[in-house]
Design brief:
By secondary structure, the chain is an all-beta fold. It contains no helices and 24 strands. This is Cadherin- member 1.
């Protein structure tokens, strides 16, 4: 109050009261997605109906929020569906039918009023990646399908650098990306042959080339055996495949006769009859016998 004197003193008297203001929410805020960005994955083993990702949006008006309905507006390519009330995105086809490795799906969250009238909305992007599983080892193929043994017949001493054209070998890993990367190598007599290429992604024609012709010698052995290995590089499983490489050699006339000794000593009794054997001289691969033609 204005105050005044009371009992000889100037006094101002006051009083207080509490006023509570209740704020009513108005529908003036659009919905918004929470937990963005969104990333989902599809695997080879996924089946139609598999859940990819669930988006979530809330009405910005907290007092009396309206229900939210979800829809896909772009990027589905007809292979994704979304539950309009839960926001769950699912696969509608088999993974083998997918054409892309990456999909960017535009999802719309719409706020619906009391009379089902559409109100504000928000749009977000869900990135879906198709993930390859490393479930296929490298495989060697011949002309008639998968093959684990390859054989060829050839003459000894081919020139260095010659391609062994008798082999028709293809190697393939049907996985994708890093899961299909592997190395090739030959295990056998050192530096006799080499394999090209040495690193393969997905598939390649295998070429075997002569590196050291001195090791391809019929006299050292009529056959040569190798192991052709394909071993994955960047995968934890390190899948591999093995094929036998067998080379049958044909002999060529490339060696002169050789005596088994530099000299021979023979003793002949003086009364030996004609036709008696004097000494046997061996010339690889021949055996020569020297005999008397008359009696001494």
């Amino acid at each position: 109050d204005g105050g005044g004197k009371y009992k000889g003193k100037h006094q101002v008297l006051t009083s207080t009261a509490t006023v509570t203001v209740n704020v009513l929410d108005a529908q003036d805020m659009p919905p918004s997605f929470v937990g963005t960005p969104y990333f989902g994955y599809i695997y080879e083993v996924s089946v139609p109906g598999s859940e990819i990702y669930t988006v979530s949006a809330k009405d910005g008006d907290q007092g009396n929020p309206n229900p939210i309905y979800y829809s896909i507006v772009n990027g589905s390519d007809g292979v994704f569906d979304i539950n309009s009330t839960s926001g769950c995105i699912s696969l509608s086809t088999h993974p083998s039918m997918l054409k892309n490795e990456l999909y960017e799906i535009k999802v719309k969250a719409s706020e619906v009023g009391p009379n089902s009238q559409p109100l504000d909305y928000d749009i977000t992007t869900v990135t879906v990646r198709v993930v390859d599983l490393n479930n296929h080892p490298p495989t060697f193929y011949g002309e008639n399908g998968p093959q684990s043994k390859f054989e060829v017949t050839m003459y000894e001493h081919p020139p260095a650098g010659e391609i062994l054209r008798g082999f028709k070998i293809t190697v393939n890993d049907s996985d994708q990306g890093a899961n299909a990367k592997f190395k090739l190598r030959l295990v056998g007599p050192s530096r006799v042959l080499r394999v090209v290429p040495q690193t393969v992604l997905n598939e390649a024609q295998v070429t075997i080339i002569v590196e050291d012709a001195s090791g391809i010698d019929y006299e050292k052995g009529p056959t040569l055996s190798f192991k052709l290995l394909a071993v994955e590089i960047d995968t934890p499983e390190r899948f591999s495949a093995t094929a036998d490489i067998l080379i049958n050699l044909l002999d060529t006339n490339d060696n002169v006769p050789i005596f088994t000794s530099e000299y021979y000593i023979a003793r002949v009794p003086e009364n030996s009859p004609g036709g008696s054997s004097v000494v046997a001289v061996t010339v690889s691969p021949l055996l020569i016998k020297i005999c008397f033609s008359q009696t001494m």
